[in-house]
Design brief:
Layout: H1 3-10, H2 17-29, H3 33-41, H4 52-64, H5 68-78, H6 86-98, H7 102-110
Helix pairs in contact: 2-3, 2-4, 3-4, 4-5, 4-6, 6-7
């Protein structure tokens, strides 16, 4: 848990999705990707549901900061644990397209029966 989240919790302030994106992106931007993933996995501790919306925020941060392979690895590890939605798939397609790797996003979509 970050110092900011500890202070927020101590003062009864519940973080929202914007707060989460700022925290996650701060770690990812400073190349502390594992800390961002660890924070995501401990969201319940700071009063945020570890759900599809939070997962999509983490994916967005990873793709935005060029951590495509980490995002894909995380995506594979979370399959079946979190329900993917349209936003999830938009993040995948957008992330791969940004790096001219659209064929890879097609493989991910082909492997999902719900898409």
């Amino acid at each position: 848990m970050t110092q900011v989240s500890l202070i927020m919790k101590k003062n009864g302030v519940k973080p929202n999705s914007e707060t989460l994106e700022i925290l996650l992106d701060s770690y990812v931007r400073s190349r502390q990707v594992q800390k961002a993933i660890d924070l995501f996995k401990s969201l319940e501790d700071i009063g945020i549901n570890c759900d599809t919306k939070a997962f999509n925020i983490l994916l967005h941060c990873l793709y935005r900061r060029s951590h495509v392979r980490v995002a894909c690895s995380l995506l594979n590890s979370m399959e079946g644990k979190i329900q993917f939605n349209l936003v999830t798939f938009n993040e995948i397609i957008g992330g791969w397209a940004k790096y001219d790797m659209v064929d890879n996003s097609g493989e991910i979509l082909d492997g999902n029966d719900d898409a």
